[in-house]
């Protein structure tokens, strides 16, 4: 089930209230964002094939048992401006609380956020505000 989290006005953003984060956790939810993800890939700051739907859908299907995955999608109004995949790590001896981690593929490649070249700062601020929220929506 997808849920939408609109961050409070970011402390450091120059465009308060412009960005929102939507989180998805299944391949079925990802299907609804195929066209926006392709458009984001075309306008991304750097080339990165991993967050494409063709890669993320199997990752969500087959790695779900290891660590739950969440994909944070950042929107500026209706335009997708960021995509950041995260894994939720369970509590352990070294990390007694659940923690978010970047996703590392089976080939050892860490996935970093894909950001729209015209919205880099705003999308990053929205992601940080989402991560730092006291509600822990993930």
Could you outline the blueprint of secondary structure elements for this entry?
Layout lengths: L2 E3 L13 E6 L2 H5 L2 H10 L9 H10 L6 E8 L2 E11 L9 E4 L11 E2 L4 H13 L6
Antiparallel strand pairs: 1-2, 2-3, 3-4, 4-5, 4-6
Query: What form results from the Cα inertia axes?
Result: globular
Task: Bin the helical content.
Answer: 25-40%
Return residue spans where pLDDT drops below 50 for at least 5 consecutive residues: none
Beta fraction: 15-25%
Please give the count of helices: 4
Cα radius of gyration in angstroms: 14 Å
The total strand number stands at 6
**Alpha-carbon distance between the two ends:** 12 Å
Structure in a nutshell:
With 138 residues, this protein is α+β, with helices and mostly antiparallel strands. The protein has four helices and six strands.
Which key terms come to mind for this protein?
4 helices; globular; 138 residues; alpha+beta; single chain; six-stranded antiparallel sheet
Can you walk me through this structure?
With 138 residues, the protein is of the alpha+beta class. The chain has helices spanning 27-31, 34-43, 53-62, 120-132, and strands at residues 3-5, 19-24, 69-76, 79-89, 99-102, 114-115. Strands 1, 2, 3, 4, 5 and 6 form a six-stranded antiparallel β-sheet that branches. The termini are close together.
